[in-house]
Structures are given as structure tokens and as C-alpha cells.
Amino acid sequence: ELAQALNIPQDMGFLVQNVAIDSLGDRLGLREGTVPVVFGDDTVMLGGDVMLAVGPLQIRNSTTLLQDIRQYYDSVKPGQPVQLTVLRAGRVQTLTVPKQKDARQR
Q1: 3-state SS of the chain?
Q2: Which of 73, 91, 71, 93 is nearest to 81 (CA)?
Q3: What's the pLDDT tens digit per position in 58-90?
């Protein structure tokens, strides 16, 4: 229902509610929601990005999606691009940033 209301060009997406400072999302330039809206029993923040895909993985209803995203991220070597496809202001955009070396690898 919410996907339809937001005109998402696929069945599912992740609505960006918050972006942590210095996170991968921050470095990619993800935009968080700024307008609280009650939808059913939930309050969601609208006005930000909707994540449609992480690398080659389309956001979908799957019990393994988060594991699949982690495997994709782990397969990207430091310095290689990490890609995220988002819906922003009605347009599909690809955000890209080089993967940084993980703190545990330093």
C-alpha cells in the first residue's frame, strides 16, 4: 500500500527514515525523511530517499535479503564502488561511493 502511495516503480523499497553520521549511507549521500506522516498505525518519515536496490540486488520480500546484501557488501573490495539505487524526488538515481577499509581490517 505504501509503495503504491509513493509511486515506487517496483513492489518494495526501503524508506529511508534516518541516516547515521559517517555511515555508508551518509557517504553515499542518502537523504532521510523530514515529514512525519501517519500511515495506518505507524508514523513514517517521508520526503527522503527510497532504496530500490543495493548493488545488483533489488529490494524484495525475502527472508534472506539482509544476508544477501551483507554478502554483496562483503564481496566488494576496499576502493571498489558500492552502488545503491534510490527513488529521489520521483526519479530513479544510482549513488556510488568507493568502499572504505573496514575498521576490523585495519
Answers
A1: CHHHHCCCCCCCCEECCCCCCCCHHHHHCCCCCCEEEEECCEEEEECCCEEEEECCEECCCCCCHHHHHHHHHHHCCCCCEEEEEEEECCEEEEEEEECCCCHHHC
A2: 73
A3: 988 878 888 998 999 999 999 999 999 999 988
- Asked whether 72 and 55 are in contact (CB, 8 A), the reply is yes
Using alpha carbons only, give the angle 97, 95, 1 rounded to the nearest 5 degrees. 140
DSSP 105: G
pLDDT per residue as tens digits for the range 43-56: 888 889 999 999 99
Cα–Cα–Cα angle for 96, 87, 39, rounded to 5 degrees: 135
Q: Which residue has the cell 520480500?
A: 61
Instruction: pLDDT band for 42, please (50, 70, 90 cuts).
Output: confident
